[in-house]
């Protein structure tokens, strides 16, 4: 397996971890009656700022993971995996890991800088695949 596909697998597992990091406090704050229901109506009370941030970080990872999955798959299938693309893949993963606490604790502008590292790492892999 290429380093990029290894990182893709680890990033998918990170998605599970992020879901748990969000779901546990959300269930405690909103109650399992709400979170286990159909959610046809808004909750009686809002989530805490930190839990809401964890939800947004989770959603952001879903968005970024799609692009990274494309990049990792294309670079691996085309046989273009290199030291550069492996470094970019691991940079993406490290950035996604650091993004969680940066977002949860509102560490601005670090949250945006960390996000940009992951985004640019994915972009580099895609550009390398074209040339």
What does this structure look like?
- With 131 residues, the chain is mostly helical.
- The protein has one domain (3-36, 48-130): Up-down Bundle (Four Helix Bundle (Hemerythrin (Met), subunit A)), CATH 1.20.120.
- Helix content is 79%, strand content 0%.
- It has helices at residues 3-30, 32-35, 49-77, 83-104, 110-130.
- Helix 1 packs parallel to helix 4 (83-104), helix 3 runs parallel beside helix 5 and helix 4 packs antiparallel against helix 5 (110-130).
- The mean pLDDT is 96.
Summarize the amount of helix as a percent range: over 70%
The CATH topology annotation reads as: Four Helix Bundle (Hemerythrin (Met), subunit A)
CATH superfamily: Membrane associated eicosanoid/glutathione metabolism-like domain
**How many domains would you count in the coordinates?**
1
Unreliable stretches (pLDDT < 50, length at least 5) are none
Tell me the Rg in angstroms.
Answer: 17 Å
Pfam family, one: MAPEG
Protein name: MAPEG family protein
Keywords: Membrane, Transmembrane, Transmembrane helix
InterPro entries: MAPEG-like_dom_sf (IPR023352), Membr-assoc_MAPEG (IPR001129)
